[in-house]
From TrEMBL:
Residues 1-23 form the signal peptide. Keywords: Signal. This is Peptidase A1 domain-containing protein. It comes from Amniculicola lignicola CBS 123094. The keyword Signal applies.
Length: 450
């Protein structure tokens, strides 16, 4: 009898009307870490913004692209929220002679790629939805001038040590000298925050080099402008307004290393994650990284992540560790009152849209850290307020969309305003919804406007 009422993982029940910020906020048992920066700024005072649509539909497989022009070259530029600073291969910029700029380098630890070249201050034109400079269309272009690394050489250096090495990949007796790669196709724009570390000698990873934080003009004007941006699966808003910050659940950020020199410098957001249960909570910082599809997790001492060793023929290491399928990963962003402002969870191998392509256990090395990878955006939009030091995930329309796609349902309203209905997508039985205890929410919070 009971089975007759069980609808497998696809029944939508309207629980009640909530404000979106009340959408699944379990008690994390953690004290507030938010202090220092102002809360609830008057976003209605700001009306200057531009929407940059992604060039291609958002996909787990690719870094999202926005359309830009730099020094008369059109580029569909990959946007990486996991790093800071712009790279363009020298052959793409024939207008920039090879003797101008300040020698510099950039190393990416995830890809082990070392780029060397010259930093040149360049004006970047972002193309809004009208496709570029078009004075009859508001929001058609924005200009930002930042130092760009014009790349002369590029190579993969697996043994590069960021603490010691600089412009060169040091010789390694065990491996042949890496062959330089072509530079005619190098384009990369890091727009992340909290990525600068004092330890690093190369300092092109500060807000000064972040094109999203150095917008000078939008459509030729610089109006009341709130420095910051939002990112969703659809694209990017440069400049925060009341309209484009609606629905975000903001938490305050700690100051970044160079905040005293540059008030736009903020640290990565605080985060706690649990493995199968919240009790072994790992609290540290989070990186929402559009640059990669996978997830990295680092736990506190004593917290083991169930893992399997798998064959990895495409890299130097033949065997690599992955989080074991079936493991539940729960991630929360601490808000006020010992509660999470926002959180999500998924089961490794469960196939949800927010699940990363794979999850890498990085071992027990405090402070805990999580890099969510870009699939996070399937469940949330994110906002970064560089003037106020605030970060906001938003349990977004995409969550609903992706869940509906998964469960082959269609035609439901998607949220725009703050009044929403929270849906629980789970097993339904004669006794109603299954218990709403932690861990029972197999899907990200899904909210629909009423
Ligand atoms: C929160 O802070 C108060 C006062 O500092 C302390 O007494 C309490 O134990 C803390 N609670 C937790 C869960 O850390
Ligand atoms: C933006 O705000 C400024 C100052 O508050 C105002 O003068 C201007 O008309 C506003 N523009 C729009 C498009 O609302
Ligand atoms: C490209 O950059 C060079 C060097 O800064 C400058 O002389 C030239 O005017 C620029 N061209 C364009 C189209 O921006
Ligand atoms: C401005 O954009 C509109 C709509 O896309 C287009 O019809 C018009 O030709 C554009 N004007 C210019 C000068 O590009
Ligand atoms: C340049 O990169 C793009 C995107 O990664 C790729 O589609 C294209 O084939 C590359 N072109 C060359 C000449 O390598
Ligand atoms: C992987 O699992 C083993 C035991 O199965 C454990 O000792 C080890 O700490 C785990 N690795 C990580 C990175 O959690």
């Amino acid at each position: 009898m009971r089975n007759a009422f069980v609808v497998a993982a696809s029944f939508v029940i309207c629980c009640s009307i909530f404000y979106i910020r009340d959408c699944h906020v379990p008690n994390s048992g953690r004290n507030d870490t938010n202090k220092g920066s102002p809360s609830s700024p008057d976003y209605h005072l700001y009306n200057h913004t531009i929407f940059l649509p992604f060039v291609e539909p958002f996909s787990s497989a690719e870094v999202p692209l926005v359309s830009i022009t730099v020094n008369a070259t059109h580029i569909d530029m990959p946007i990486d929220t996991g790093s800071t600073g712009t790279l363009i291969g020298a052959p793409l910029l024939p207008g920039i002679s090879n003797d101008i700029g300040t020698p510099a380098y950039q190393f990416y630890s995830s890809s082990r790629l070392l780029y060397t070249g010259r930093l040149v201050d360049l004006e970047i034109e972002f193309h809004g939805s009208a496709g570029g400079r078009n004075h009859s269309f508001p929001g058609s272009y924005a200009l930002a001038t930042v130092p760009v690394l014009v790349v002369d050489t590029s190579l993969r250096c697996p043994w590069y040590d960021e603490q010691v090495d600089t412009f060169e990949c040091p010789p390694n007796p065990k491996f042949p000298t890496p062959t330089p790669k072509k530079t005619n196709n190098i384009t990369y724009m890091g727009v992340g925050f909290g990525r600068n570390k004092m330890a690093e000698k190369n300092r092109n990873d500060t807000p000064r080099s972040n094109p999203f934080l150095n917008v000078g003009k939008i459509d030729g004007y610089f109006g009341p402008y709130r420095n910051g941006y939002t990112v969703s699966t659809k694209g990017v808003h440069l400049g925060l307004t009341e309209q484009n910050t609606k629905g975000f659940v903001f938490v305050n950020l700690k100051t970044g290393y160079t905040h005293d020199e540059d008030p736009r410098d903020w640290a990565m957001p605080d985060m706690c994650f649990g493995i199968n249960r919240w009790e072994d909570m790992n609290c540290g910082s989070a990186l929402i990284d559009t640059g990669i599809p996978q997830m990295y997790l680092r736990t506190d001492i004593g917290v083991e992540i169930p893992n399997v060793t798998v064959h990895n023929p495409s890299h130097e290491e033949l065997w690599v560790k992955r989080v074991k399928p079936g493991t539940e990963i729960m991630v929360g962003f601490p808000g006020t009152g010992g509660k999470f402002a926002s959180e999500y969870s998924f089961e490794v191998g469960g196939g949800e849209a927010v699940e990363p392509s794979f999850a890498v256990p990085e071992g027990q090395a405090p402070p805990p850290f999580i890099n969510t990878g870009r699939n996070f955006l399937y469940g949330h939009s994110v906002a970064f307020d560089a003037d106020g030091g605030r970060f906001g995930p938003w349990c977004s329309a995409n969550a609903m969309e992706s869940l509906l796609n998964r469960h082959r349902m269609n035609h439901v309203l998607l949220p725009h305003r703050s009044t929403v209905c929270c849906f629980l997508l789970t097993h339904v039985s004669a006794s109603g919804i299954m218990p709403t205890i932690l861990g029972a929410w197999k899907s990200v919070c899904a909210c629909v406007e009423m």
